[in-house]
Amino acid sequence: MRRYGKNPDEDDIRVRPNRKGNRPRTHIRPKHEDAAEGMVLTVDRGRLTVLVDDRVVMAMKARELGRKAAVVGDRVAVVGDLSGKKDTLARIVRIAERTSVLRRTADDDDPYERVVVANAGQLAIVTALADPEPRPRLIDRCVVAAYDGGLEPILVLTKSDLAPADKILETYASLDIPYVVTSREEFTDGAELARVHELLDGKVTAFVGHSGVGKTTLVNALVPEERRRTTGHVNAVTGRGRHTTTSALALPLEGSEGWVIDTPGVRSFGLNHVDPSRVILAFPDLEPGTAECPRGCSHDEKDCALDAWVADGHADPARLYSLRRLLATRERREGD
Q: Which residues, in sequence order, are CB contacts of 116 under 8 Å at separation 6+?
């Protein structure tokens, strides 16, 4: 049975109407050439706070980005209402290529990788010298994540009035990591704050540390209340409220072009996403000793050359123990 006339090009061909009354879908996406550039300051339940020029704009991710998510520190292209007024919403249509990525998993058995911060140049690892006690293994993990993601690590040791910093500094002296030691009493006079500020000046620095080490107190001292109010004070959903370190938040560093990114306190720092062969790169004091290792050495076996390297005094035995503990954790995961 012929459904149409003799000539399919004639006007009598019936076209099924669009019941929704809108235009049919197309795979051609707009280029958004007039999109404004911005930086993601914080993310909260699908809503993103973006700094566009000198305005804080609320935005959501455009559908065409698919599952690609923007994180704090991302450079993005934004369209829509960019006035920053209450109850307005813009759209993020592009995410620029990242220069660095700080990633972690909940633990070494967790396959789900979480991108915490993008485009940071430094990772400030905040550790208290007492109350709570320092956790060198957590420091090691943060250093590994920093090197793997393209960030330079910094040690910020707090509460030196409660315990000396000599032991921790000696442990990491061979890594040549920049550091600053602060105390609760002297921090208020501005001298120690100036030393921290000098390390951060002109750079984007993510702060990480477990709860109670003084990380957020340090960030609050670096960023005056009025500047925190213009960026972190706005809740990404309601337009009200204040930041409580439940998600990462980027804040402008006082008197500098730099940025400070405060992240939630962590109990653990999983390295599931890091290739085991790259872990040694976070131990430059040990890496030269691997030159004599047998091919495919796991650095935790009888013929490993690192034992002789450490025995000859080239590195601290505690560093080799830390390396092998990280590798052993990963090996147990892979063998499960």
A: 71, 72, 102, 103, 104, 206, 208, 248, 263
